[in-house]
Input
Amino acid sequence: MRPRDDPEGAWAADAIAEGVRGAEPNDVPRRLCHVAVRLLPVARASVSLCNEGMPVPLSASDDRAAYLMEVQATLGEGPCLHAARTGAPVIAADLAGGGDSGRWPVFAQQATALGVRAVYALPLGDAVGCLGTLDLYRDVPGVLSPGELRTAYLMAGVMTVALMSLPTGDDSGDRPPNGFWLSELATEHDEVHQAVGMVMAQLGVGADEALARLRGRAFARGLTVLDVAHDVVAHRERFERDRP
Output
């Protein structure tokens, strides 16, 4: 077996190819998350899409990684959002101390409570056209070695190509802009956008304010923004205008 720091990346490329061999197209993101965990010194991985300031969790290697995606979506802060906004990788080597713990304090608190000490968020694309992020979670603090970083960037590149190559279900081959043709993989989060529209109507506010209200209520109740969106769409939850 080749070492993880193989400068040519052949070992990693072989492992990636083996990891996705025979997979259905829609299962490729999940398979690649598992491959990332095998290839790199990380405990879990996830991938999310960019969608108008709201990350849409797409797939994860385990439930804990999926939860950390939802935490970032709920808080509106975290490494994956920063990487998506800037199109630049985010290396948070120690969420329990130093500057990293203060960059996203609430997310850092939530992550460390689950035993996560470091996060590496890699954009799938760049600032001009960022499709989403590949997020790698580590249970011990520290940075990746140069060879491990090359493997991580290789994983992000393969993930980007895989997402762009997924079938659209449209024989014409046309794809809506900004990756929204991937929405079938993240249908649950359609309710967040429905809920934003309903809150806009209930409060007479814009989309950004409506999303902020959803996030605030979710955080105050210890829920995810998706939980609150479910209740809003089902008419179990309503937002009232502030009284003068």
Q: What stands out?
A: The longest helix spans residues 146-165. Residues 1-8, 168-185 have pLDDT under 50 and may be disordered.
